[in-house]
Each structure stands twice: as structure tokens, then as C-alpha cells.
Amino acid sequence: xxxxxxxxxxxxxxxxxxxxxxxxxxxxxxxxxxxxxxxxxxxxxxxxxxxxxxxxxxxxxxxxxxxxxxxxxxxxxxxxxxxxxxxxxxxxxxxxxxxxxxxxxxxxxxxxxxxxxxxxxxxxxxxxxxxxxxxxxxxxxxxxxxxxxxxxxxxxxxxxxxxxxxxxxxxxx
Length: 173
Hints:
By secondary structure, the chain is an alpha/beta fold.
């Protein structure tokens, strides 16, 4: 039970942080359409502060995050809404060094989940060993999606968690 109370304490602390944050800002309404017409897909890794790393301000881009920053059906769904209803055109994919998805295998993690729950997960795990190859695969998935209007404006990068620099990955179609 101690972990449950610790998690509640963390959440209460964050809610308090939000009050301080909100009180320090003027009340204003940003347009739902990102000003830079950009969607960024990246990993959920807590070491990557997307807004700070890219110099983005609130209201400038959609940021989609998941384990590994991989292009799943749900990411395509979100990109389709982003492009078709909210006006984005460019897609920037950012994977990173030292990713947790490189520490597991699809079969191993699937078996672990099934053993723990008695149910095999229906979702793809999407682990990888080569970050550049995974960026190339993700760029191709976006470029080849029939649901996206602007699949030609897609570029992929690797963020180095130690130097905080981006390196572009060349992708041939």
C-alpha cells in the first residue's frame, strides 16, 4: 500500500505545481490549430523535453508520444486528425539513444505480459535494436499511409540523450 500513497502524494504535488504554473500565466486562448503546422512524434522518455529541445512554444505543434516513438495505428489516427482537421503539414519523428525499447524483445515482453495476466496483448510491442533502422521504418510508415494528406513532408531524427543534439536519419523511399 505504501506505493499507492506515494503515487497519490506525487500527484497531489503535481496538482499544486499546476496551480502555481497557471496562476503565473495570463489567461489566453490558443487556437487548436498549431501555428507551425507541425506534428512531432517522439518517445515517452522523460529525458526528452520536446518543447525545450526544439525551441517550441505552446500552440506551435502537436506532440504525440508513445514507447519508442514508433508509428502505430493510433499514431496514424492522430496524425490523420492533425492533418485533415487541424491543418498540420510537416511531420517530425524523433527517436533517441539509450531507448528502453531496445532493452526488450517483442516475443519476450509479450510472454511476460501473458504470464502476468493470462492474456496475450493484442497490441504490437514494437521493440528494436537499431535506432536508425527504426527511424527509417517509422518515416516510411508515415509516408506510405493512405490516410495522411502530407506524407511527403516527413523527416526523422535521433536525439542523443547525453549531448541533447539531433541527428537526421536519411531515408530512401
